[in-house]
Structure formats: C-alpha cells, structure tokens
Task: structure prediction
Amino acid sequence: MTNTLPLGGTTYSWLYQASLTEAFAGLAEAGFCYTEITTAAPHLQSPDFGTYERYSMKKLMNSLGITPVSVNPGFMDINLLSPSSDFRQLSIAHMICEIELAADIEAPFVVAIPGRRHALSPAPHEACQWWLEEALTRLLRRAEPLGVKIALETSPYGYMGRGTDLLEVTDKFDHPNLGIAYDCANTLVNEDPDEGIRAVAARLLLVHMSDTWRDKWAHTSPGRGEVDFGSYADALRTIGYAAPTIYELVDLEPPMPRIRDDIAFFNKYGWDPQAPAVLDKSHRDLTLQKGMDIS
Result:
C-alpha cells in the first residue's frame, strides 16, 4: 500500500499490569519505534522522578530503538477547568512538570485535555473558557523556551468533544507551540472522525486511535467496536499527516500477545510500526545543559 502511515504505541497499555520498564520492553517486542509515555502512577511518580531517573529512561529507550513522541499524564485527576482554584493551580503545576519532562527526554509533544465539567452542576462556559485560557497562557510560557509543543486533545467528558472546539481555541491563541491531538475514540460519539481530522488539519500535531462504540466509551482492540479505520487512514493521507499515529490501547486486558494481531489489523489500512515518521525536532536539547549525556 502506498503512503504508509507510521504507527506508535503507548506505555498506557501496560499500566497496572507491568512496570514501566516492562512496558518499554513490550513495545519494542511488538515492533514499535515510537511511543507515547503515560506518566501516571504507578509507572511514574513525578516528585521522585528526578534527573537520574530521566537519564535512565531515555537510555533504556535508546537501547530498545524507541523514540519518545509525547508524554501524557492520563488525566485521572488533572482538571484545568476545576472551579476550585487550589485544584486548578495544582493541575497547572503538574502540567508544567510534564513539559519539563518532555524537554528532558526529547519528546516533542505534551498531551493536554482541556478539562471536564461536573455532570450535575457544570460551571458556565464563560468561566471554563477563561480558566482554560489562563492555564494555556501559563503552560505556553514554560513550553516555548523549552521547545515543547502542547497538543490539546479532544475529550468525551462533555467539554470540547469535537475537533472544531479545539480549533477555535488554537486559532485564538495562534501560538506555534499549541496545536491539537485528535483521538477518534474520544470523538466518535460527537462526529465522524474522518471529518473531524480534516477539519483540524491546519493545527494537527498528533493522532490517537483505538476502537470504541458510540454508546460505550472505550480504547480497545480494532474490530471490536464501530470506528471506521479505513476512512480514518484515508483522511490522514489526504491531509498529509506524517507523525506517528499512537495506538492508545487502554482496556486493562493484557496487551501481549494480542497487540501483534492489532498491528496486523492496522497494517491492512497502511499503518506500520517500522515506518519512518516526521517529528518536530525544533525543540531545544536541554539534556547536555543539565549534564544528562544520553548518547
């Protein structure tokens, strides 16, 4: 098939089932060259993950032939839209740590979900918009000098569930370090992913995929749900997307050995874990400045 699409994996697939080191080994065994690192506990505890731990993780990835594409905290607790100032400030502080981690391990992108509103008593849209813009302003202030890009991800939590919602935000900021991470499993309930991906092409930084249902949110193996991966692949080719598509398998079932069958499924539509990708390499290399020689 022409116009092969690079395919990446994520350590998230092994969360609660294996250590972070074992997750990297599993990704390499499956044949992935690119990965997104989910920085949630118990895989990674931010206060204890210092310079030496970052050096060791980068060295391990190098030895396995894995290139980090993005870091993603998973957003179990982080909420940039929390009506509580204390919780909102903690969320911003945590995301700043994510940006610094990405710079240290040379990952171009940090994934950021705008936040979530309470289902029974949602905060007004105007307030959410103000809180999000305040958070992004502070995050970009840290990300820009480090050369890290923030990829806002579509969310199924009832706030900014469509790609065009994020497009409005990124267009308003019009900042070179702010773009969009599009996830078909997060948008299927709100829009056709192939149409959504075309709509945000001008601001697209990163793509996630997994299978899901319209009436049940999931991140499971392809073929189980209702995502049309053929149309999704065609849309990515149409817009000229060349970064890795991250296969975000998160269903708490053992990822191995079925992930090999999942890769074979994606191969039919042109995704290949060994295909070369175009990554944003404009970020500044701070590792040498910090004495972290990882060559």
Strands lie at 5-10, 34-38, 67-72, 109-112, 149-153, 178-183, 204-209, 245-247, 271-272.
